[in-house]
Amino acid sequence: MNRRVVAMVLAFIVVGAGTVLLLLPRSDTHHGLIRGLPEGSYTSVSFHLKDIQDCSLNVSFVNDPELLYSLDVQLYESSPAASAFDLSVSGEDSALLQVQFDGKVRIKEIRLVLGSGIPYGIGVLGTNVNATFIYENNAVGSLASLAYLATGSFVNLQFTEDMVFSNDGMEITVGAGSQDRPDNLYLSLDLPDGVNGIGSFSKPLSIHSNTGWTLDFEMPSSITYTTENHDQQPRIGLTLRAVYSVHVWLSD
To answer: What would the pLDDT profile of 20-30 be if each residue is shown by its tens digit?
Structure first.
């Protein structure tokens, strides 16, 4: 009887106290990495993705306080991981843990899953990127941030009431400059109980649903909506800019 033996090699690398990096070799076009949150007195994680080109980016959260990241990268062409991107972690001896992903080649898709044990300050720089961010599963909102500075057809932002806030808020910025904006922006925001909001949106703005947000002031190129207690923390602050259109679904 002929038998086919399929072998999968998993490499476990101990990179620090309480931290294990798991490499998931799949193919030269598909690379996976998982890393646990190191032991330490960290207040937040800075996670920057830079030089991403022609990419579909998906960022989500899982209810796992021990996870730092789970990263799945799919390339257009075969390449070893080290030749396709740089991924580094620093600041283990400080309060701010820093993770940086630098693309070296065109990347077809990045799927990034983050844990629920710490707030993340996420930064994205790239060209022709279509992105989706889903904040759920007890993602920490207090002291978290998102700065998205990339071109592309769209960015989709989903903030659910299944986020965790204490006394501090969260800031979200998309397209701060005129050259780093997505063509279209879609925002679905359902504030957790006790969390306030203020949002500045570029025009044209389409509000598909609105519960609890009121028009605060309007300028030629932007319009601002707020909740009743928008000057009080915890608060989600939004500065959202797109080339063509902004579509929002708001609920306090």
So the answer is: 555 555 568 99
Return the closest-CA partner of residue 135 out of 238, 22, 245: 238
Give the DSSP H or E segment for 81: helix 81-84
Tokens of 213: 């947000």
Tell me how far apart the alpha carbons of residues 169 and 177 are, in angstroms, rounded to a whole number: 23
Residues 6+ apart with CB under 8 A from 1: none
Amino acid of residue 99: V
Distance from C-alpha of 162 to C-alpha of 193, rounded to nearest angstrom: 10
Q: Give residue 5's pLDDT.
A: 31
What is the CA angle 237-59-235, rounded to 5?
Answer: 15
Give the Cα separation of 72 and 117 in Å (integer): 20
Mean pLDDT of the chain: 91
Task: Collect all residues with Cβ–Cβ distance below 8 Å to 47 and sequence separation of at least 6.
Answer: 69, 99, 100, 101, 112, 114, 120, 121, 122, 123
Residue 65 DSSP one-character state: T
3-state secondary structure at position 82: helix
